[in-house]
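Worked example 2:
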Amino acid sequence: MRVLFLELDTENAWAVASLGPAFLAAWLRRHGHEAAFLRVPPTEPIAAIAESVARVAPDLIGVSMTTRQWLRARDVLGGLRRLVDIPTIVGGLHATFSPEEVLRHDGVDYLCLGEGEAALLDLVEALQSGRCVADDTIANIWAKGGARPSLRNPIEPLDALPFLARDLMDERWGVRHITTQRGCPFPCTFCAARMYDKLYASLDTTRYGRRRGQGNVLAELTELREQGPLNYVIFLDDTFTIQHAWVREFCKVYGKEFAVPFSLNARVETVSQSLLADLAAAGCRHIIYGVESGSERVRREIMKRNASNQRFRDVFRWTREAGIMATANYIIGTPGESRAEMAETIALHHELEPVDFGFFVFYPYPGTELFQLCRDNGYLPDDYLTRPANHRESILNLPQVSRADIAEVYEQWTAIRVAAALRRVPLGAAAAGGLSVVERDIRARAATA
């Protein structure tokens, strides 16, 4: 059978594609099936999408989606169903944690809960043989109109999986993306990644959290280098720096065999000065830390993150001293956060002095603890299911702060962003043509503010 995976862009014309389909495609190909990829731009008309799908002539359409992609996926799949008669399966975070809502819409025939490689293969082979999949007959696969399926054990070990099907990732410029693990052991209440661990822990299955062997990761990197070019590696694990023994040994071999610059995600609780030195020696040039809030109360009581502000100050200083660039990410408007505590985040940001930073208005993702809190307390608007999931404005009706309060703080962060950009490159450089379109836009906004 031939499965066509759709990558649904929602805002940007290009970004690296979802990892899920690349894993699934590799697994299907190993077992004798075909897999194809189609990137769907944000404004692509349904008729044009249908023409592209028809040229591929798939037997099954697959979509892996986050909550931010859901409304676009709903519209595209519903529109395609009116033009082409091809069964469709959806998976990913949003499908796993809002399955009933997703299944009730036109254009969705099957839904995958949790990990999908073995489940999708079973579905493909059932469809190929003409078997009916109308009820709880395939673990993890929920058929429209059928009962919720049981969950199968995750694939163990992760080294049993083939390497990612890179033609489905749309990577460019020799920048390669790698994952070394699945699952996250930390209990952050705003993050859906942790919910996979909870989903599997609540059932009669083995642990979802697993890490690849170092040799397996290095073998994939060797293969990528042979295919060339290999200019930069981005490790996409939620927290690369857990299991220090694994990380240190990996750094020794990677630094000797590759020495290609790389970036990763970390938590301040999981790094030390010596570990940062090992990472830098191996080629680490960039670490992204989730700071989230400058209020220790908000982090501790609301987000379930116990690191102190002093720990953040120390780690950001250690990272600079190691010669590694640090990016900080912040969340604005978390339920229970006061306007004064939002100001504490800005104050801590100025102390940390990251090279770059991201700021995001809180959005309640289904499956997370804070989503449940928002629903239980009536913070969600009645039409939240039809509102786009974005991080520029709040959709919540919070008792302590208004949407206008959050919007004002967002504008403060925007001003900080513009000022930081201006410090890096003077306004005159834009006129000389030395800046990207985005950078020119930032400076134009600053000049007219």
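The chain has two domains: 2-143, 171-375. The CA atoms of residues 200 and 283 lie 35 Å apart.
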